[in-house]
Amino acid sequence: MSESNSLTKQEREPDGLPALFAKMADQLTQLFDTKLSLLRVELKEEVSIYTRGAVTMVIGGVVVVVGLALLNVAIAFLVSTVFESSNLSQPVRYALGFIIIALVYAASRPFKQSAPSESGAPNTAMNPSPRNLLMTP
């Protein structure tokens, strides 16, 4: 009986301080391995979510660009109907429609860049100096 008590006592108590450090090192290694595998799984999930979102945004962007192009073509054709009463040929009328729409877009572009913000804050997009960035409205 005393032998069985001594065996269980030896199993419960390590051989001293070096054994405790070895056991602690093994447990820390196991903890780091577990943490790294968990991090890998979480990163894979995050990457798949971001990839799916990016693909959706690219598809949406393509749809928007095609839609805007079709809208601009329709507006150009609408403008070309203004010249229907003139004696110009159909291709010239279409060309005038596209040119007028291009000029309208080109003329409206400078106004968008220099327009002040609605809050009255300075337009830092035109002059992003540190002094303008630190100014409060």
Number of helices: 4
Number of strands: 0
- The helix-and-strand class reads mainly alpha
The amount of helix comes to: over 70%
Mean pLDDT: 81
Largest sheet, in brief, is:
none
Q: Low-confidence segments, ≥5 residues, pLDDT <50?
A: none
| Cα distance spanning the termini | 86 Å
Q: List SSEs in N-to-C order.
A: HHHH
> What amount of the residues lies in strands?
under 5%
Could you tell me the radius of gyration in angstroms? 36 Å
Keywords:
137 residues; mainly alpha; 0% strand; rod-shaped
Q: How would you sum up this structure, described in words?
A:
- This protein is mainly alpha-helical and 137 residues long.
- The protein has one domain.
- The chain contains 4 helices and no strands.
- The chain has helices at residues 2-12, 17-80, 90-114, 130-134.
- Helix 2 (17-80) packs across helix 3 (90-114).
- The longest helix is centred in the middle third of the chain and has 64 residues, at 17-80.
